[in-house]
Amino acid sequence: MKNHFDNLSLRQVTRRFGGGPGAGKKGSAPVLAALDGLSLDVAKGEFIALLGPSGCGKSTALNCIAGLLALSEGQILLDDRRIDLLPPEERGFGMVFQNYALFPHMTVEKNIGFGLLMRGLPEREIAQRVAKAIDLVQLGAHTQKLPGQMSGGQQQRVAIARAIVIEPPLILMDEPLSNLDAKLRLEMRTEIRRIHGELGRTTLYVTHDQDEALSLADRIVVMKDGVAQQIGTPQMVYSQPQNLAVARFMGYRNELLLDVVEQRDGVGQLKGPGISISGTVRGDLGSKAVAAFRPDDCSIVPNDVSPANALTARVDAVEYYGRETLFMLRTLDNVPLFVRTQGSATIGESLTISIPRERILIYPPEQAK
Amino acid sequence: MIQGASDRPGAWWKDLTFWMLAPATLFILLVFVYPFVDGLILSFNPMNGGYFANYENFFSDPRLWQTIGTTMKLALPATLINVGVAIPVAYRLRNKSPYQKLATTIITIPLTLGTVLIAQGMLSYFGPNGWFSQLVQWLNIWDGPVRLTHNYWGVLISLVISGFPFVFLLILSYITGIDPVLSRAAATLGANPFRQFRHIVFPLLLPGLAMSFALSFVQAFSVFPSAILLGAPSGPTRVISIAAYEAAFENYDYSLASAIAMIMGIVQLVVVALVLGFRRLSYRGPVTGGKG
Q1: CATH number of the domain at A7-93+168-245, please?
Q2: Count of alpha carbons within 13 Å of A322, Cβ hemisphere only?
């Protein structure tokens, strides 16, 4: 167990579930891979978020790295040393579990000191390091409490302290904030970022919340159906989604299947009934293409003005949110459309919606499944 | 809830809770409380002598008071073996698998056999000319016939065979109740499988172990048929229930028999109280890892 490393490398990490022994052999039914060929290089000190909907394989990936799940295929290397065959206790990574997994019969102090006790450190050093960790997560008043006597946020802090006190080269977090209420989640998010900054430890963070991933991570791995769809900085993933799956996850809620009029220099011109828009092309287009854009990027323009990038739609429903209003519209083809902007409209009214060209992404239609 | 019942206005006989509790209460009164009180009173009305003559008699006659020790010598080791062996077996079988189902079924079969059937089987298997004895001699492990029936060992083995499945099922249900994610958390903190058990599973299992021990002990302490069928009922396995039986049905001294039964009950109660008192010292809260 080393406290530092320069590079963690996942090579084609694959994990299949189910079927029991003999599954996947010739003749048996094919077993779906929960995680399919994930390759990723993590540098020291990086904060990586694995982002995706439930069942996308992100937790499987984390458990494979922690050693709690064996790989079906692939390798995990830590500075060119294979670690994927080591049991979890010999990897020495700190892990924060979704339901915290605090030892219910141990006090906060004992919980946090457990990893150090397992490493056979002298009692005095354990006490010192535990006290430091308790200070870091600001739990000074609760050292002698049992987990059952604490709130969710406090338990969460204990779980984090327990994982970082062993000074692991890598910290793994499995949806650590999903059991907290909205306000506490924001507080703890800041806290996690602060602790990461203070300790400079490499962190792998699993979440289904795009805000969490965008605000915390240096790089994001967007996953779907066990496959990494895009790996990049938050800015890249947010503004240049690789494919429609990533775009959908990044809030591109509107999708229109349209005819391709022209495609030149990465810019496509699309047409449909009452629709004429152009945007950035990502992928090889045929005669049809899907235009995707965010509800927030739309604006309502007066009907007598006819801007370049616009479409006509009928108002289906209106939800007032205070600062903004969410308009649910239908195009002339009866495709639902969401627009989030200021202004007002009555149901049944026809509106002209304008979207800036750089905010429209165009994908091949086969991704729209 | 009984507390909730008193909050309701109206007479007690209008309360549904009362009527729902009535059958069980009546049953306990008729089948347990009445015979117990009757026996208790009977034990203070000896055939000869004062109120306490039966108890004085019991503790002055070595053939009577020594049965406590004789029964202890059988019940304590049997219980310790049952609990001690059930822990690793149940721990090994804690995860769901087809293998677990098969093993659990096989282990549980003796529960369905009566004590007398087990005794019958043991007499032919463990007897001086039984398969076990022949096997041991054929392997040259021991010279001469192996005597595992009609003595202390026969009764002990029988107590283990009939008691183990019961203890195993109890402990298995306690172990599977412990959140497996706790062991995984311990593993990521550097605990090998043995230390995961020693620091996490065992402390959380302790209250369940105390419960299993108490129940198994009470069962073993009241051993009767196997002590006669497989033991030496006049000597080394003259357990306390045999003494009570002799008093009641050979000497027709129901009063003394009642006194012996009371003493037997008190000894069981003391051991159970000790074990459960010890249980109070251990952690007894939830055995999951936090808010789920």
Answers
A1: 3.40.50.300
A2: 0
